[in-house]
Amino acid sequence: MKKISFLFTVIIFILSGNRASAQTELQSATLQQGDKTSIYYGKDAFISAFNAVTGVTDVITLSSGTFNSPTFNKACTVYGAGCETDESKGIYSTNVGEITIQHGTEVNGEGETVNKTNDLDGIHIEGIVFTESVNIGEYGKPVTLKNLTLKRCKFYGSLNTVQDAWCISDVNIINCIIGNINTDLTNNIAIYNSIINRLYGYHNDNKLLIKNCILFDYDNPCVTTYKDNIILDSYAWGSDAFKASFFEKNIFRYGDALNNVSYSNAKNNWTGKNDIAIFGEEIGNEYDPSKTYAIKAEAAGTYIGTDGTPVGIYGGLYPFTKTPSNPQIISKEIDVKSTLDGKLKVSIKVEAQK
C-alpha cells in the first residue's frame, strides 16, 4: 500500500461587496461513466446514481452524510467519504443502511423471468459505514458472483454470506471494521488487516483465510486458515471445523486457546499473552475507535508473521488504514483577507491510500 499526499493551491476570485453566507450540506452522488459525469443530490442520490449504472467500470462517489440504500443488483465501484467521522480532521463518514446484493432479472427466450448471469462480478465498495446488515444473497435465492471487494468499510450490523450461496468466490475484505460476519456456505473468502468483533459459521468445508486481523470472538467457526492475527477469544472450541483449522504465527490472549487443535495444525503461535504484553494497554473485548491496536514498540521485533512483517493489522499486504483510496481533503488553509485585485488564496492538502 502506498500513501499519496499532495498539496495544491486554488485562487478564488471574490467579487467585491460579497458577504459570507451559510451553506447547508447536501448529500451528493457523482456517477462517472467514461467521460460522462452525472451528479445526484439528496438522501436518494445513491439510489438514483446506482439505477443509472450501465457497466462494471462505472464509478459512484458518495459525499459524507446518510443515504437511502439501492437494490444492489449490478456491479460497479462505489467510494464513500470514509468509514469513521474524525471532526479534528474535518472528516465525516458516509452512512448507508441495509444492503442486499442480489442478481437482477431478465426475461429469457421462453418468456420466463430468470436471474441475469455475471451481473455481480467485480463489485468494489469502499469507505462506507453500513448501519444495518449487508447481505450477499437472500435465503432461497442464491447468488453467483466473484471478485467482490469490501474495503475500509465499517459494518455495525452483520455481514452475511447467506445459505445457498455456494457460488460466492474470490471475495476480499480489506481494512474493515466488522461487528459480526457470517461466512456460511461460501468459497475462497479472504479477510485481511481488519478488526472483527465476532466471526461465526456453521459448516465445515468453507475456504476462509483470516490474515493480519484483530479477532475478538469466534462462535463455532468454519474451517479457516488463521495467519498473523491477534486472537482475543477466551474459548477453546472443540468442533470438528475448529479442529481442522490451521493456525500459524498468531498471538492468543489465552493460554489454552489451541488445546483442541492437533499439533500438526498449529505452527509457531504465541499463547497466553495479555493485552499489556501485546499492546502496552488494556484494549477490552470489542472494537474501540480510540485504540490504534498497534503492537507496542518493545515487542514489535518479537511478533513477526509468516511474511516477515509484524503480526496484527499493520503488517502483511494491506497495513490498516481508514482513509479511502479516492482522494480525501485532510487540511485546508484559507487566507482571511483577499488581495487588492479580489483574489483569495486557499491551500488544500489531499491524501489517498492505495
Describe this protein with a few key phrases:
mainly beta, 354 residues, globular, 29 strands, twelve-stranded parallel beta sheet
Strand and helix layout:
Layout: E1 3-13, E2 28-33, E3 36-41, H1 45-51, E4 59-62, E5 65-67, E6 77-79, E7 94-96, E8 99-101, E9 105-107, E10 113-115, E11 124-126, E12 129-130, E13 134-136, E14 145-151, E15 154-161, E16 168-174, E17 177-182, E18 189-192, E19 195-200, E20 208-211, E21 214-215, E22 218-219, E23 224-227, E24 230-231, H2 240-243, E25 246-248, E26 251-252, E27 266-267, H3 275-278, E28 328-334, E29 343-353
Parallel strand pairs: 4-6, 5-7, 6-11, 7-12, 8-13, 11-14, 12-15, 13-15, 14-16, 15-17, 16-18, 17-19, 18-20, 19-21, 19-22, 20-23, 21-24, 23-25, 24-26, 25-27
Antiparallel strand pairs: 1-29, 2-3, 2-4, 9-10, 28-29
Descriptive notes:
InterPro entries: Pectin_lyase_fold/virulence (IPR011050). Residues 1-22 form the signal peptide. It comes from Bacteroides cellulosilyticus. The structure is a single chain. This protein has helices at residues 45-51, 240-243, 275-278; strands spanning 3-13, 28-33, 36-41, 59-62, 65-67, 77-79, 94-96, 99-101, 105-107, 113-115, 124-126, 129-130, 134-136, 145-151, 154-161, 168-174, 177-182, 189-192, 195-200, 208-211, 214-215, 218-219, 224-227, 230-231, 246-248, 251-252, 266-267, 328-334, 343-353. By secondary structure, it is mainly beta. The strands form four sheets. It has a twelve-stranded mixed β-sheet. Strands 5, 7, 8, 12, 13, 15, 17, 19, 21, 22, 24 and 26 form a twelve-stranded parallel β-sheet that branches. The longest helix is centred in the N-terminal third of the chain and has 7 residues, at 45-51. The radius of gyration is 23 Å and the shape is globular. The model is unreliable at 1-24 (pLDDT under 50).
